[in-house]
Structure formats: C-alpha cells, structure tokens
Amino acid sequence: MRRIAVLTSGGDAPGMNAAIRAVVRAGTQQGLEVVGVRRGFSGLHRGELSLLGARDVANIIQRGGTILLTARSHTWRTPEGRARGAQVLRDWDVDGLIVIGGDGSFHGGHFLQEEHGIPVIGIPGTIDNDLYGTDHTIGYFTAVETALDAVDKLRDTGASHERIFVIEVMGRHAGHIALDVAVAGGAEEVFIPEDSKPVSDVLEIVRDSVAKGKRGSIIIVAEGYPGGATGVAEAIEAGTGLETRVSILGHIQRGGSPVSSDRILASRLGEAAVYALMEGRRGVMVGRGATGLIYTPLPETWEKRKDVSRDLYSCAKTLSV
Amino acid sequence: MRRIAVLTSGGDAPGMNAAIRAVVRAGTQQGLEVVGVRRGFSGLHRGELSLLGARDVANIIQRGGTILLTARSHTWRTPEGRARGAQVLRDWDVDGLIVIGGDGSFHGGHFLQEEHGIPVIGIPGTIDNDLYGTDHTIGYFTAVETALDAVDKLRDTGASHERIFVIEVMGRHAGHIALDVAVAGGAEEVFIPEDSKPVSDVLEIVRDSVAKGKRGSIIIVAEGYPGGATGVAEAIEAGTGLETRVSILGHIQRGGSPVSSDRILASRLGEAAVYALMEGRRGVMVGRGATGLIYTPLPETWEKRKDVSRDLYSCAKTLSV
Amino acid sequence: MRRIAVLTSGGDAPGMNAAIRAVVRAGTQQGLEVVGVRRGFSGLHRGELSLLGARDVANIIQRGGTILLTARSHTWRTPEGRARGAQVLRDWDVDGLIVIGGDGSFHGGHFLQEEHGIPVIGIPGTIDNDLYGTDHTIGYFTAVETALDAVDKLRDTGASHERIFVIEVMGRHAGHIALDVAVAGGAEEVFIPEDSKPVSDVLEIVRDSVAKGKRGSIIIVAEGYPGGATGVAEAIEAGTGLETRVSILGHIQRGGSPVSSDRILASRLGEAAVYALMEGRRGVMVGRGATGLIYTPLPETWEKRKDVSRDLYSCAKTLSV
Amino acid sequence: MRRIAVLTSGGDAPGMNAAIRAVVRAGTQQGLEVVGVRRGFSGLHRGELSLLGARDVANIIQRGGTILLTARSHTWRTPEGRARGAQVLRDWDVDGLIVIGGDGSFHGGHFLQEEHGIPVIGIPGTIDNDLYGTDHTIGYFTAVETALDAVDKLRDTGASHERIFVIEVMGRHAGHIALDVAVAGGAEEVFIPEDSKPVSDVLEIVRDSVAKGKRGSIIIVAEGYPGGATGVAEAIEAGTGLETRVSILGHIQRGGSPVSSDRILASRLGEAAVYALMEGRRGVMVGRGATGLIYTPLPETWEKRKDVSRDLYSCAKTLSV
C-alpha cells in the first residue's frame, strides 16, 4: 500500500476536518501518500483529486464544515458512475479509499469495493448518530451542544414569559440528539421516532406543569417524530388552550467549530482507518464502542438498528417531575 | 421621593436583568426604596409587587430574561386598567415608576403619567433597536451576536455544500439587526424594511457570485421585509434555478447571557433613570447617544423614526464584491 | 428510607447543580424527602440544612458552581468533627447521605459511614477525572471544553506571531485534561504526570516544527508535570534560543455552564445514587463505565489508579507529525 | 493611484482579518490593485509581498489573528530600515500604504511617509483601545467579551466557595478593558492606571462585602496598575486576613473569532482607509467617533491621551453597592 485517498460525502458534520487531518497525518507518518478527493463521489467521478501533505491540514482541526467539500451525490447509484469513479482511483494509483460520511456514503463505498475491488474503509461522520457499529458518530456531540445552547436561550425567554416552547431538533430517523438535549436541557417532555407514544401524552404533562407552578415548559421533538414540533404544538393548543411557541433549530446544528469530543473521536477514527487499510481490512466502518475500536461490515452499519438509551429515556422522565 | 418602582414589559431582551440591578442598586445607594413589579402591567394591575434590596439583585447581571417576568399585557390599554394600576402604585406609596421595555410598554407608561400623574421614566429594552432617542436599545447587541453566531455556523455548511443560505433575522419594522449581521457575517446581500428595492435585485448578485466562483452565498433578510426569507428564497429558485436553504432564526435571538455592551448600556441607563426621577424629569425615555445621555419625551420614541445607518448599508454592498 | 441528604464538597465542578437537581427530583419522585446541606462537611457540622423540593432545583441544570455552596473542609478529618456531623444527620432524621465531590470528600463520607453507620453514596464531581471507578467525572467535559476554547484563541495569536505557546491546564495528579486538550487542540507535544519523559524531549519537537515551517507551536502541560508550563518554557528557551509564551489557564477551567455531557452524566448519576441508597447499597461511589453503571467501594476510588488512555497518548504523537 | 499595500503590525487583534478583507474588497471595487505585506514591517523589509484579490479574503471575516501575520519589528526604527522598506514599496509600484496596528506601527508608518513620501493611512487595531482619535479600536470589543466570559466563569467558582477573586486583564497603559469588564462583570472594585487611588482602598470594600453577606467578590485589575493583580491580592490578604485567588487572564484576550462590533468597525474603517488614500489624505489614522469618521494625524494618536469614561467609572462604583 503506497497511496490512499480520502473523501467526505453527504451532509457535512463538525469534526470532518479533524478526521481528514488525522487520515492525512497518520498516513504521512506511515509513509503513505494521501490524496484528497473534493466534492465527494461527484468530485471523484470528475477527477477532482490532489495530493495532501501534513502541512495542508494544519490549523483545520477547529473548523466546521469540510475543506474537501461535500455533495449529496447520485453518481455512485449507477454502475456506470461507480465504474467511472473506480477508473479515476486506478488512474491515480490509489490503493485504498477512506469515506467519511453517513449511510448513503457507505453505500457508495460498499459498491465501489464490491464491484471494482477498491479497498474501502468508512468513518462515521454524521450529526444524527444513527449508524450501527459505533457509540457515537463524528459531529453528534457538537450538534447536541449547539441545540442545547439554543434551548438554554429559549428557556430564558420561556421562563420570563411563562411560555411553552416546542423545539424541534435534527434526527430524521433517530432520537439521539433529541434525547440528549431533553435530559441536558431539563425538558418537560421529549418525542422521538423510536417511541410511538401518542402526542396526547403531552397534554397531561403540560397541565401538570402549570399546576405545579412551573414557569415555562420546554418540549423537545425530533424531526422524525410524526408531525414534528408543529404537530405537537397544535395538539397542545387544541387540548389545553395554552399558547405555545415553536422553534425549529434547523441547519445551525450542522455547523460550528467542533467540540472536543468530536475532535478526539475524529482523530482516533481517522488514525484507525489508516491502520485498518494497512492491516488489510476491507469494507468495514471503524467505530468506537464501550471497550475500544469496532470494525463493522459496511452493510451492517445501515441494516442494523442502534436504539436510543432506554435508561436515559427513563431518566428524562424521572427528572422532569 | 422615597420609593420608586420598576417593571419589565413586552418582549424580553438580554440585559433587562442588568437594568433592574442598576435601578435597584442606584436607588438603594441614593437612599430610595425600590419596589419590583412582576409580570409587567398585568402584574401591576394584580398587585404583584415586592421590595427589592441590593442583595436581591446579586448575581443576575449575566442572566438572560428578566427576574421580574414580563407579559405582553393589554390591561394598560383601557382607562380602567390604567386607573387600577395607578391605584396599586399609590397604595404602595410609589413616587415614580421606571418602565423597561419597548414602544408598547412606553405607551402604557405614558398614559399612566398623563392620566394619573405618576412620574414615569422609560428605559429602552428591546432587541429590535427601533426606538427613537437612543443609538442602541438594551438587548440589541446580544441579538446581533446570537444571529451572527448562527450565520457563522450556517456558513460552514454553506461553504462545504456550496449552497445559498437565506437567513431571516428578527426586526418586524426595522433592519438594524439584519444590517449589522450582514456586514459582520460577510453576507452577499441584505433585505430590510427600510429599503423597497425589489427582491429581483438579488438574482444578479447570486448569478454573479456563482460566476466569481464564490463557495456558498449568505443572504440576510429582516423579518419585516415583505415575504421574508421564504419569499426571497422562492424568488432565487424561480429566477436562477439554484437550490436554496432557508433558516429562520426566531426566538433564540431573544435569549442568552447578555454581551458586555448590553450589560454596560443597561447599567448606565438604569442608573441614569433613577437620577432622572430624582432630578424631577417626567415622561421621558433615557437613552444613550453619540455624546452622552439623551432624554426624549416618550411619545417621540415611537412617533419619530430612527433610520438605519446608510453608510453601513453602503459598506455592506461594497464589501460583498 | 424516608429522608436523604445531599451535599457538595471540595473544589466545585460544572454539573454539580445538575447532580443536585437529579438527586432532589429522583428522590421526590420516589417519595423521599431530600435535605440539602450547605457548605459541604463544614456546613453539616454547623447544621446548615434545609429541605429541598422539586421546584427549588428548577432552572439550575445549566448553571456552573453549586447552589449548595462548597468548602474545602477539614472538620471531617477529626473523630470529633465526624461525630458532630453524624449527630446533625440523626437530628434531622436523615437515613442516607449523598456526597458529590472528589477523593477528599469521599474520605469524609467513608469515615462517616464506617464510624457512625450512616449510609453514604458518592457521586464523582471533580474536573480532574482522577477517580477510579468511572470513565468520567462530572465537570471534566466542561473543563476540557473551556481549556480547548482557550487553546483555540491562543493558536490564533500563536499562528499570527509564529510563536511557541506553552499552556498549563489543570490536573495536579492526572493528565486527562491535558491529553484530551492536546489531541483536540492539535498540540505539538503534551507533558503529563503519568509519563516521566524528560522535558528535553520537547527540544527536538520544537526544532522539527520550525524546520517543517509550522507557524506557531502549542505545547500542553498538565499542572502536575514537574516544573509545570514555566519549567517547560524555560527548557525550550535555554535549549533552542526561541522565544516562548506561557499561559496558565487556572481557575476558569472550574466554572461556566456545564456542557451537555456533564449535565447528562450528572443527571444519570444523581438518579442512580438515589436508587442505590434505596436498594441498600452502602459506601460506594456510583460511576459510569463502558457498559453501564459501576459501583465501587469508596476507598478503591482513591486507592486504585485510573490511567490515561495510552491509545490516545499515542494518537497525540502520531497526529502532531 | 493604481496600487496600494496593506500590512498588520504589532500585537495581533481580533478583527484584523476583517479590516484586511475590507481594504482588499473596497480597493478592488474602486479599481485598485491591493498588495498584502506579510509579517509587518520586517516582512516589508524582506520583500514578502503578494497581490490579493477579492476571493483571497473570502471566509476570513470571522477568524481571529491575521492572515498577513504580524511581528513586533524593530526594522522601522532605523533610517536604513525605513529606506529599505520604502525601496521595496517603490519596486512594487505601490502608491499608498495602509497600516493596521497600534502606536508602534503608526510610528513606523509616520516616519516612512515623512522621510520617503509614501502616503500612509493608519487603521487602529489593538485590543487596548489606547489610541487617541477613535472611540474604539479594532479588537477591543472582543477582548472585553473574552475577559468577561472568564469573569463569569470565575464568579461561578467564587460564589460557590465564597472567595475573593482578583482578576488581571490586559491594558498596559489604559484601563478601558478593566473598566468595561468591571461594570459588565458586576465587580466589587476596579483598579486602573488612570486613577492613582491607593490599593488600601480595596480593604474597606472587601470588609464591607463580607459584612453585607456578599458571596464571593470580584476585583478587576488592569495590567498597568502598579503591582497588578498580585499586588492587590497581597494587600487584601495582609490587610484583612482573607484568602484570595489571583487569575491573570493573559493572551487569551488577544485571540478568538471577533465579535460583531469589531467586525463592523473593521469593515467600516478598512473601507474608509481606502477612500482616504484615494481622496489624497496622508499620514492620518481613520477612526470612528460619536458622529462619524475622524481623521487624526498619526503623531496625535500616540501623543494625545484618551481618558476612560469618568461616568462609567462612577457607575461601576455606584452599582457595586
């Protein structure tokens, strides 16, 4: 193995730059050449590659976004697209590819390896934390912190006006962000896609809050809960006659300088991905679990389901008393 | 003058607590008793008053929201409501009232003084900065900072995806926040209620950006611009075929620990409001202008119009080249 | 079990308020009365106790410091002091005590239980993360984030002036903060008490940095490394003739609103401590490990040693290439 | 005028990048070529110049430090050094030079113009705010915010431990930062170089604080006050027997992403500096005062003295009651 490539793909996540840096520096330190692919699979398709040295990734560990740019590409979805991408990698004498992204990106990487024999290692980079095979994904910690900061701000206003705030956080299929934010934000209730409890459950909680003299309530709703924050707010207004305010946090959760946990996770996984390629591992995502690094076949990362912590879910309930 | 009262009213703004603290401490230091009214004019109406000592306002200068709570009250809109409020103040032997809020709150204070002879001093507390008679209002600086922080985060994503972000900031009637955020955020274009330029103006700017190879564009829209961010985004998509993302920052702009400029402004104006009452000033808002404190009759604060800085507006244009 | 008490002791740590809230709310939810002891063991000694209800701990989850106050007390060090404390707890009909703090506080709790039969549960609250029996201690994550924020700021100046910054972070006996900050801050080198490498090792690294054209270097030193940051800086100046700047971050690392990870950890452990008392556990610290909650006899928490992650230490080295 | 140059010199300050961006973009927009000089006057001396286009300054407005690098150079102090610098500018066909920095940098610019006829305009970039001819200098607002954030954190610990914190902020000759931080941080006392009151004044304040039951005290000391924070702390311990903690904030005050006020000030002054050169102004600093832009001959900026606000100083006193 003499030369490897790295790309970021799908939605950007804070810490992707730290992962790129780790791949480049660990690769360099191991005597490999590292090629950066710009704009994910669509850039690969178009041949947007260039060599990256250790100095090229200086002073980026603290930056949000990705210096390699990213795109939600569809080029890898067709056999022709993948063949073209593989050819580019061969033209560049690339012996292995590291893909930083989420499940869409891992699909791309998986087929590239299956059909064209390019060794591929995945690094989990997505704020949603919805990949099986790792306790946390790169970007998740920062997204939680950003959402929590917004909740803290809304609580100031909510408490001053004694209002009910219904706040929607990201998570199309998973309630990880919502649950963490609910516990850390001291929310009265949380709605996540993993639990099918009816929205009417919130009515008693809200009435109870008012009865207890709570000044302002915070309800957290994951994007993927049916109806979202708007649906929950409407149910509250219809069921209790109380006024609510909806806040949909949106894209700010994707940006910003990564917090320490994301930078450390990205550094470790970036380093580990390089070692994995050198050790001959193929078609796996490198993740971090309770007792160390985990290597999971790429298809399992999207086929198997990682549940939210039921203990934490129960804790959220207990502490909103 | 032996006893004064203070209340916060209307939308909360970061720095209101610093203003309350300044009123209580300057009053105490001058030998006055200070009464805090909870929940603005509606609380006044219901007699929610209590004495506040210097220690009661310890450790609040850094907190968002208002410890006195606030409400968007309509009680002061009727003569009966105002008579009731005046009676409560007389029952409590209050010799003067300090109202921290925006134009709605100042209306309430104005009529209270006109009809019932209660000396009233206003302190400008609103994030919108839309009051005549002061260069800045309490809460404005923090709202700009919060919005700017969001813009910086969105730029990370925007640059990584090479996307156009259309971001709506607060300002129902005024473009102050939007303009400051646009200059400080390095935005490509800004739409404010004070300028009637057509939304189609943005099309050339966006096309130009793409032609120049800019990675991602930021467009700032004040809430009060006709159509808001959604309207601008639709116009861009219809006119250029380019994809956009809309982000409406909303209520987070009201909360959070106040930045230094808001705390300092609030401290100065809170102190000055106490002195103003003691010096016999009546029915004025105390503001801070280019050369020091300004005292403006309350009606002028909402009747006269404070324009945005035209120099800054022109600067925004020049630097987006 | 009908009534329990909770106190914070030793150095304060961000997240202690979240832990107090969790104890009070989980206790209340389980039908217990919860008594708060102010000023740690010295307050216990003096009888500074009062009942805490669920509303008394509203709106504190986001606050730094501890609403129960703390003190570095020596009262528990004498048999008389402990006897006095035990008597106060009996006078208040307290059936169990939860101690939030570090090893000094756990000593106090341990002897109270050994000598007077008061059931005691410890919750690890210290920024240093130097307790055996838990992967992380409450306050640790926030301290790392605060230190990292400072490093990011110093890097701006360091890079602009092409200077060497030697930054000292907290950790009298442990290098956990230093190591995390070094990896997340992209430092060139890190010195921790756990590794006895000579300070002269840094000379080659610094010379190498200059040779590679790195703009500015960041060296992280744990407080407990012999000589501290000043010693390392002097060694660099003596050995290379290059100018350095020393920054000792100090007490700011103890304060501030806790980050999400500390709030969540504190919420979980506060809840678990109440359940532990109810289940009849005695004299243990409740911690969180790789696979869930861990209960460790109090003496083991200070007698056994928790090493820093050797993988992370090696990663720091690799990525500074 | 066809080509102008820009450099940053002396201590770096947040917002310098925003000023560079404004100079480059306003220049470009006016049809000028803009040359960036790296490493201030020493880089000028060595010919480290290169052309900067509008895209070269994209995405830097939010970054701390200076992309042009800076140095505390002594090359301009000798006639030979200045002659060499002037020759480089002539070789590069530069028609005017914009210097972003403090009084040392303005000395350099002044002599360059006096001796060699190079038109020079100064932009005030220093966190100390100690230049005559502008209400604020670029970087000042961010430094205050950073110091205030540290004070807020220390207050958490101070209040929890009921301790006296003596905090030293930057300001070798001026108390602007100290005064703003004291008011915004709710400090009990502030010591600045502009007031010669004896350190013993603090003793009564501290005793009084304790008597009033204040939990923890914050004392702010400007770097330039004789003895600094250490001297004040020693005086307190000697005079009252109370324990104190000293925190010297140091270089973190120079770094970090600039706050909105610094970015806006830098944008306006950068633009104005270009216009000033084009209008034929020479040897002046462009500043911003109460009623708009101000042009002050460079020597006046360091010869005349800008006092701290006496009203604010008095306010600090009143509100610490």
UniProtKB/TrEMBL annotation, chains A, B, C, D:
Its EC number is 2.7.1.11. It is found in: Cytoplasm. Residues 3-276 form the Phosphofructokinase domain. Mg(2+) binds at residue 103. ATP binds at residues 11, 72-73, 102-105. Allosterically activated by ADP and other diphosphonucleosides, and allosterically inhibited by phosphoenolpyruvate. One of its GO terms (molecular function) is 6-phosphofructokinase activity. ADP binds at residues 21-25, 155, 186-188, 212, 214-216. The keyword Coiled coil does not apply. Pfam families: PFK. Pathway: Carbohydrate degradation; glycolysis; D-glyceraldehyde 3-phosphate and glycerone phosphate from D-glucose: step 3/4. Its cofactor is Mg(2+). The active site is at 128 (proton acceptor). Keywords: Allosteric enzyme, ATP-binding, Cytoplasm, Glycolysis, Kinase, Magnesium, Metal-binding, Nucleotide-binding, Transferase. Substrate binds at residues 126-128, 163, 170-172, 223, 245, 251-254. Its main location: cytoplasm. InterPro entries: ATP_PFK (IPR022953), ATP_PFK_prok-type (IPR012003), PFKA_ATP_prok (IPR012828), Phosphofructokinase_CS (IPR015912), Phosphofructokinase_dom (IPR000023), PKF_sf (IPR035966). It catalyses: beta-D-fructose 6-phosphate + ATP = beta-D-fructose 1,6-bisphosphate + ADP + H(+). Homotetramer. Belongs to the phosphofructokinase type A (PFKA) family. ATP-dependent PFK group I subfamily. Prokaryotic clade 'B1' sub-subfamily. Catalyzes the phosphorylation of D-fructose 6-phosphate to fructose 1,6-bisphosphate by ATP, the first committing step of glycolysis. This is ATP-dependent 6-phosphofructokinase. It comes from Deinococcus navajonensis. The lineage of its organism: Bacteria, Thermotogati, Deinococcota, Deinococci, Deinococcales.
